[in-house]
Fold:
Amino acid sequence: MRADITAIILTFNEEKHISRCLLRLAPLVKEVYVVDSFSTDATVALAKKNGAKVTQNTFINQAQQFNWALDTLPIKTDWIMRIDADELIEPDLIEKISRTLPTLDDEIAGVNFKRKHIFMNRWVRRGGRYPLLMLRLWRTGRGRVEDRWMDEHVVVSGGRTVTFEGGFSDHNLNDLTYFTDKHNKYATREAIEVLNQRYCLFAKAQGLTTTSASRQAAIKRFIKEKLYNRIPFTLSALLYFLWRYIFQLGFVDGRSGLVYHFLQGYWYRFLVGAKVMELEKAIAHLHSKQEIIEEVSRLTGHKLNSVI
Structure:
């Protein structure tokens, strides 16, 4: 029998991945909702063909889109799963969820998965990239996505989390051009988060703790905001890459691993810092929060919401 789970997938032009993702989910979950951001490819048609219920909503950011889904969709199951179109639930994790989920005490509010990253068709095992503990399954009504522009996590209340063993992979089939374009957009959103940390432009999510999500995620957030973001990016990006590639054995991942660790562990981090520098110079002459928010919105193309 399928587990009492509703899976929610956010999509935009995911025709390469959506069928593969839905076929893996089919034996596990009772219902799947695809929340689409008005794709221009075959995403919607393929989602419907593979049994998903499709709704569409204008995209602002990941957090707001997913929380819109939680507030809007008629979810009737006891559990909700968050999964991306390019992610795969592997057979051993499907078996673990099906067998274990009905036995969990009510104090267990959420379940972390151990995500692995597949890059250039190879598993990136080193450099601190496995396991990445992510809270992706939670009891209905007891989980929500942090209201952030980047690095948003699901956080739960009214209980604690556990971690399930089993395969859960991020395997995007697009090329390096797509990868770098995506991370360029990520860098803009993360730069907004850094500016918020420095200038308190709008309310920050405070829900991520060692009990409301994975301990790993909470510790990483603390280190990033309290230490990493306070070091000049010209130094911090290099130190982070060296830490991953040498001390966390990233070099063991081979040539494709070098490409990944350099792009994601150095170039991306450097790009975030450079964008923060550029934005700070652009807003240096401004005095009020509202002026800064309007200028950052204009420069980044993102409509920033503020609680002043």
Summary: The radius of gyration is 20 Å. The chain has a mean pLDDT of 95. Residues 6 and 31 are 5 Å apart (CA to CA).
